[in-house]
Design brief:
The chain is α+β, with helices and mostly antiparallel strands. Helix content is 34%, strand content 31%. It is built from six helices and ten strands. The longest helix has 18 residues, at 35-52. The protein starts with a strand and ends with a helix.
């Protein structure tokens, strides 16, 4: 576990896969409405308090952003908000915002792309944000899903070839590829199927 404080009110905590195992939680399970997530956050904040040698009030108002790490861990970006919640007569709160990872995969045939889109649509609780491009004779699907990242990657890899993760490949495609569908490519590919 790596703990740094780039500013007085900001703390960055990198949790490895081993840390997540020790804390008995996964990125997909993290939700502050879940008692186990609260236990993990309080434990991590206590370790940060010791590592940084300063008082961190877990009942204070703070924003926690969680981003998955490629090794199965995650990074927590904690911002302690400078609001005197107790003086206002209200309880502080913690809020977790999860960053959704964008994946870009290439498909050699429309058949593979359509089959993958069907599987993604069936597995998602809500529609995935997806865009479709044509570049160098290949279909490129850029997707951002609520599904667990490992599951999305497994489904995509069954039919396509990974290009990269994150926003950079999407920006490259927008500049050099031909846009075929924006925002709802999976729904458009599976209409009537």
């Amino acid at each position: 576990m790596k703990i740094v404080s780039p500013q007085e009110n900001k703390i960055v905590i990198e949790l490895t896969n081993a840390d997540m195992t020790e804390l008995d939680i996964t990125y997909e399970e993290m939700d502050y409405g879940n008692i186990e997530t609260r236990r993990v956050i309080w434990t991590v904040l206590d370790r940060a308090r010791h590592a940084l040698s300063r008082d961190i009030d877990p009942s204070g108002k703070m924003l926690i952003e969680t981003v998955p790490a490629p090794d199965g861990g995650c990074v927590l970006y904690i911002t302690v908000l400078q609001v005197q919640t107790h003086a206002l007569g209200c309880r502080g709160f913690l809020r977790i915002h999860k960053e959704r990872t964008r994946f870009t995969y290439a498909f050699d045939s429309l058949g593979d792309l359509t089959a993958c889109a069907m599987r993604l649509r069936e597995g998602a609780a809500e529609p995935c944000k997806s865009s479709l491009f044509l570049l160098d004779g290949q279909y490129r699907l850029s997707i951002c899903s609520e599904m667990p990242p490992r599951r999305v990657k497994t489904l995509l890899a069954e039919y396509g070839t990974p290009c990269a993760d994150g926003a950079m490949p999407d920006a490259f495609l927008r500049e050099h590829g031909k846009l075929l569908a924006e925002g709802d490519a999976i729904e458009k590919l599976t209409i009537g199927l």
